[in-house]
Write a structure and sequence with these properties.
Blueprint lengths: L1 E2 L3 E3 L3 E3 L2 E2 L8 E9 L6 H5 L3 H17 L1 E10 L10 H12 L3 E6 L2 H4 L3 H13 L3 E7 L2 E4 L2 H6 L1
Parallel strand pairs: 5-6, 5-7, 7-8
Antiparallel strand pairs: 1-4, 2-3, 8-9
Length: 156
Amino acid sequence: MDLTEPQRDSGEAIISHRIDHNPDATFITAVLFLSMAHAPNNTSEVQAEPMAIKRQREYGLLTASALGVGIIKEFIEIGVPATALHYRPQLRKMLDYIRKHPDIRYAIFPRQERFARHPTHHVNLHEHFERLGVKVSFYEAVSRPILHRPTDDQNN
């Protein structure tokens, strides 16, 4: 499975389409969340997209490919720590988008600590996705995506 070159959508999102030999083929849909806690201080990155975000996108697309899903929208959060949902505008937008598009089945995040740092926030946020019928996946290691199960954290 190959992905086309990403296409910009309203400045905040990128839409990528899965390419099959059958252009009418449907695929399982996913959203991609890219984030960094601190705004870049490198002047070249302030004007352009930070390298960390570009790298996360690349790994996110690899994860989507490994899961056999297609990214239909991406959300970028820069300069916002992974704290309570109340303080994370792009994450709230993502959840709202998922509510309006119930066909989305996966949400792909860069790392568990960019999902939520505090265990209580982690569990609460995962419950939001679970209620929406969305599986959360992290791409901690490029070689294999990690599907999150909340009981994994509770048993350790």
